[in-house]
Write a sequence for this structure.
């Protein structure tokens, strides 16, 4: 059965993430493969309409990818019935208003996270979408990474026995900008512009933890600004008003304890920029962006603590690689395909606006914990 092309309004695609992961590696890649494969074997093609603030950049992107529709006026296209889906990859500070306008126009909405700058704003968007009866989804890209997909398979198949703890390390050194140019935009370090590693990364860690190990029930965190002065894209110094590192302990349902450090002020001595170690009664695993290695209980060595002797144990060699066993595509593209199936044939897509709001709830609770120096419990969110 032939399906008409699904029109997608894409707002914010001139930015790094919006362009590379969502336009080029997802929507254009889906177009080039002939569309999204549906459950009945047919395909639905995507037709993107680019929206942004810079005419020159939009025109250049459209020409580069053979696209014909672009505009700097979002409201002029929200009423176009040929484009029933709205996607947002703008700065967090302007996303909430545009998303609300798209919902009011009856669009199905797929958006980057965080969906708003506050939990109350995120919940209002979720209520609004529910009342409007539109499909809604939030990007949960980390769940689609090859390393975490392998880790999820281990969890689902009971490899760990009873899971005891999770330890996560994320981060890398972001240059200040006074010598070498910074590899992240300056707004990331200004709270007034929606910056901060807590708001950025804890929205990710919430859905990773709750989907693999259990719902976050309490948090104890410390958010800090290690580097108070940075230099912007023009080489001008500015005061960093947002946190650039966060250290958290998360208590999960079922008794699992997770510790996750996130920092833009750390030099990497890991195999990948993010790694999670999961320890259970029957085995352990370490998963990154792509790799996942395991050590079952039956082959676990018996280390002996002796600080007076050099330890020559080849610890890394005592772990075993988890194979992919199936092709693993770009995670952003995979979730795009799932959301399109959700819109076209009502296929399941659990990562909705309420899931996005839970990420913001954790971020706000972590900031509260840091400010008060206290453990903060998280109540279940209901619309």
């Amino acid at each position: 059965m032939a399906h008409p092309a699904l029109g997608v309004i894409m707002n914010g695609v001139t930015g790094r993430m919006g362009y590379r992961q969502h336009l080029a590696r997802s929507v254009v890649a889906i177009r080039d493969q002939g569309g999204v494969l549906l459950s009945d074997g047919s395909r639905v093609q995507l037709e993107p309409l680019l929206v942004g603030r810079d005419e020159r950049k939009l025109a250049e992107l459209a020409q580069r990818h053979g696209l014909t529709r672009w505009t700097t006026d979002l409201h002029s296209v929200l009423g176009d019935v040929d484009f029933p889906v709205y996607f947002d990859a703008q700065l967090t500070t302007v996303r909430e208003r545009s998303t609300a306008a798209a919902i009011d126009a009856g669009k199905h909405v797929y958006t980057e996270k965080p969906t708003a700058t506050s939990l109350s704003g995120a919940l209002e968007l979720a209520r609004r979408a529910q009342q409007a009866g539109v499909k809604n989804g939030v990007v949960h890209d980390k769940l689609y990474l090859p390393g975490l997909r392998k880790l999820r398979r281990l969890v689902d198949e009971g490899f760990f026995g009873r899971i005891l703890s999770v330890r996560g390390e994320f981060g890398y050194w972001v240059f200040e900008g006074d010598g070498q140019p910074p590899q992240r935009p300056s707004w990331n370090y200004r709270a007034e512009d929606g910056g901060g590693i807590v708001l950025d990364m804890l929205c990710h860690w919430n859905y990773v933890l709750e989907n693999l190990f259990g719902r976050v029930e309490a948090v104890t965190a410390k958010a800090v600004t290690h580097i108070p002065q940075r230099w912007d894209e023009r080489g001008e110094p500015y005061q960093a008003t947002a946190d650039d590192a966060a250290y958290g302990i998360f208590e999960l349902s079922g008794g699992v304890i997770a510790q996750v450090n996130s920092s833009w002020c750390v030099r990497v001595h890991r195999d990948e920029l993010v790694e999670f170690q999961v320890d259970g009664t029957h085995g352990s695993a370490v998963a990154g962006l792509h790799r996942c290695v395991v050590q079952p209980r039956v082959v676990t060595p018996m280390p002996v603590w002796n600080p007076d002797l050099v330890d020559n144990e080849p610890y890394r060699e005592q772990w075993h690689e988890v194979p992919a066993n199936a092709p693993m595509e770009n995670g952003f593209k995979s979730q795009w395909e799932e959301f399109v199936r959700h819109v076209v044939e009502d296929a399941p897509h659990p990562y909705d606006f309420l899931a996005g709001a839970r990420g913001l709830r954790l971020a706000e609770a972590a900031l509260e914990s840091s400010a008060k120096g206290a453990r903060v419990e998280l109540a279940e969110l209901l619309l």
